[in-house]
Amino acid sequence: MSTAFWIIIAVLAIGTIAGGLLRMRAWLRKPAPPEVIEAARRREEEDE
């Protein structure tokens, strides 16, 4: 009983971590909003 409990906990933990990583990857693939791109461009021009 105890071993089965820990196996279930481990599977849930691995599933949660994998799901979070997939969501993070999808979020990082989204293009940046135009405001962010414009702000970065302005900052780059100020540095030059």
Could you characterize the architecture of this molecule?
With 48 residues, the chain is mainly α. It has one domain. The chain contains 2 helices and no strands. It is rod-shaped. It starts with a helix and ends with a helix. The model has no long low-confidence stretch (mean pLDDT 92).
Largest sheet: none
Low-confidence stretches: none
Radius of gyration: 21 Å
Number of helices: 2
Number of strands: 0
Protein name: DUF2897 domain-containing protein
Keywords: Membrane, Transmembrane, Transmembrane helix
Organism: Mycolicibacterium confluentis
Transmembrane segments: 6-22
Summarize the structure.
By secondary structure, this protein is mostly helical. It has helices spanning about 1-30, 35-45. The chain is rod-shaped, with a radius of gyration of 21 Å.
Any descriptors?
mainly alpha; 48 residues
Set down the secondary structure blueprint.
Elements (H helix, E strand, L loop, with lengths): L1 H28 L4 H14 L1
